[in-house]
Amino acid sequence: MSPVAADPAPQEAEPSAPSGLQAEVDEFESRGPLDGAARGRLCGSAKEGKSDTTVLELVPSAPCKMNENKPGASQNLACVFCRKNDDCPNKYGEKKTNEKWNLTVHYYCLLMSSGIWQRGKEEEGVYGFLIEDIRKEVNRASKLKCCICKKTGASIGCVTPRCKRSYHFPCGLQRECIFQFTGNFASFCWKHRPVQIITSNNYRDSLPCTICLEYLEPVPTYSILRSPCCKNAWFHRDCLQVQAINAGVFFFRCTICNNSDIFQKEMLRMGIHIPEKDASWELEENAYQELLQHYEHCDVRRCRCKEGRDYNAPDSKWEIKRCQCCGSSGTHLACSSLRSWEQNWECLECRGILYNSEDFQKAKKHTLPNTNSVGITDCLLEESSPKLPRQSPGAQHKDLLRQGNKFRKEVSTIMVELGFQIKKKTKRLWINKANVWNSALDGFRNQNFNPSYTIEVAYVDENDNFGREHPGSKQEFLSLLMQHLENSPMFEGSLSKNLSLNSQVLKENLYYEAGKILAISLVHGGPSPGFFSKTLYNCLVYGPENTQPILDDVSDFDVAQIIIRVKTATNVADLNSIVNECYNYLEHIGCLRLITSLSDKYMLAKDILVYHVIKRVQAPFESFKQGLKTLGVLEKIQTYPEAFYSIFCHKPENLTAKILSDLFTVRTLSDVQALGFWNSYLQAVEDGKSAVTMEDILIFATGCSSIPPAGFKPTPSIECLHMDFPVGNKCNNCLALPITNTYQEFQENMDFAIRNTLRLEKEGSSHYIGH
């Protein structure tokens, strides 16, 4: 039974009911108590001089039958309350038509009407509301004018005492009224609706809606709601409503902490309708059918079965054995040299997790895995969101093994989380290879550029009179940008760099652009920066006030000499002599101090150091920091400083033959001899028996000299083709290997093609990398 919602106040309230209407008032009161406003509105209907029967005549025309889904029968019929024929379940609730009484209603219009009770069973009338009650409610509402559209039929009113506003349900939505689908089904007008109160708003920047990931202003309004249990979780009202309808009361919960009780109570208060039904994904027929199927596929690198990887012959050497840890990988017994089915077998991934624990603990120094090998559950602390694809129990178990401590995240996992913001909508950047930095700036500063759009790169040549463009590799483009940043005047130092003070760069707001480009590069699959000093990184993570620079951070030789002389002074006289000699400089930087003892040299050296490394570049630092907030990168760095330290402050680990062999997957059926030559070639390159390096091979195939923190997308692959020389397709990260008769010919052709291709590319770009 749904209790009656509080009634709207009448437009003109009467002190008592005329005798002709007293019977109707008595009948309403027999169903439940009416407050003064409701009684006044009922009595006020007599003022129009119309009886119930003259307003709405409902005549039976057919046997009682509910039509719910026939488009021709219900979609063109108007709701008797709001008089709209819109069929939008998310906004107005399900639209139903009773053919016997020729009656059509929106569920929410019916549910929120003030003067009606659910007196019947669920199958009676419309949702348990009897036809005679609906008729009387329609007649009552016909005497009330909507304060929004100025038409009659306003069956809903604000429950606030002395508020006389009445309105239709769609009009109330348009005017941002709040309807509470719980308790007494109260309605509040735009003046008296409940609001979320935040004591202090420390949010200066936009934050993503945790459902759609679109950015929003974190200020509570009608359209923007905040989670009551997670203070950093914000939602669009429309996103919440769609989520609630799909999840139902049993699965609707906070997307961050999975709290349901506190979360649902607050959302109901703020007008979110949570239907009492099972989740939509639970109602799908055979939704979990795949969980009942055994995995039958051989996943080893070289399957020996002539019948194919999917062939499974029980009680033979071609029987497929599943991984005992995850169950989501398999092998033929013969392909892994297993003597019997009872013999234990683990796939390579689980074996690395279980048995190479020492290597696993040093994951920070290892090459980061490809994003394709990172499971969705790595990114969540609790139950997966219903919007994410389901995983089999075996895959989930493998993810948990990989994750280890759930409070310790690897960079690859964090990058996957950040990558969720990238949308399918693409934005093309036209890049002039003769001036990568400036053409990239033009693209990123374009008012139509959105950092969350998928980036496409097209290379253009300003000297080409025909204006032709060529598809480019996004990761190669981002690598060139990182090279420019590392060698730009925005940073100073040799290997470990700090921000410099460059007035022209500051004037052009390039420090902000540098931070923004670095953030975009990381999320979109760019390489590790690897050139930050520990001091600069700590300033970003912990703040300049909590960071102590060291002498190595000073790139200015003269300043470094002053600090060294101060630190090595052996007596007060020598120290005063240095202060007098550098008097103007110390006065200018605000470090001039009275020397009374030799121990004052430590404070003086510290003051000079802090000024030169931190205070002097305060404006560039703040600008760079604001740019780094793009796509939430800075927030992730501050949340997981240890995970990001290696990619910001250390160059990636040197590539090995094993790393490259594991990185490249074999595409389709390939020549076995050529693949053998490929593995031998990688080993020869690692042993220094080739003119090229591991990095040269990766650049030739992908445009990157190291594996990006976010991994490669698409996954690097190799294929064997009948040709003389290898071909690298950087757009698809594909390396085509030549099929040759001998290994010597294979190595010579590989060396020649890779070495000369990279030499030509360097000659073409050497004049702009340092600009």
Task: Give a topology summary.
Layout: H1 22-31, H2 36-44, H3 52-55, E1 66-67, H4 71-75, H5 89-92, E2 95-98, E3 103-106, H6 107-112, H7 131-141, E4 156-157, E5 166-167, H8 169-174, E6 178-179, E7 187-188, E8 207-208, E9 215-216, E10 224-226, E11 234-236, H9 237-251, H10 261-269, E12 320-322, E13 330-332, H11 348-355, H12 357-361, H13 393-403, H14 411-419, E14 423-432, H15 436-445, E15 453-460, E16 469-472, H16 474-486, E17 491-492, E18 498-499, H17 503-507, H18 510-523, H19 534-542, H20 557-567, H21 572-581, H22 583-588, H23 600-613, H24 618-628, H25 633-639, H26 641-649, H27 657-663, E19 665-666, H28 672-686, H29 694-702, E20 717-721, E21 727-729, E22 734-738, H30 743-765
Parallel strand pairs: 14-15, 19-20, 20-22
Antiparallel strand pairs: 1-2, 2-3, 4-5, 6-7, 8-9, 10-11, 12-13, 15-16, 17-18, 21-22
Helix pairs in contact: 16-18, 18-24, 20-23, 25-26, 27-28, 29-30
Pathway: Protein modification; protein ubiquitination
InterPro entries: EPHD, HECT_dom, Hect_E3_ubiquitin_ligase, PHD-type_Zinc_Finger, PHD_PHF7/G2E3-like, PHF7/G2E3_ePHD, Znf_FYVE_PHD, Znf_PHD
Subcellular location: Nucleus
Descriptive notes:
With 771 residues, the chain is α+β, with helices and mostly antiparallel strands. The protein has 30 helices and 22 strands. The strands form nine sheets. The protein has a four-stranded mixed sheet with strand order 19-20-22-21. Strands 1-2-3 form a three-stranded antiparallel sheet. The chain has a three-stranded mixed sheet with strand order 14-15-16. A hairpin with a 4-residue loop joins strand 21 (727-729) and strand 22. The longest helix has 23 residues, at 743-765. The radius of gyration is 35 Å and the shape is globular. The model is unreliable at 1-74, 357-408 and 767-771 (pLDDT under 50).
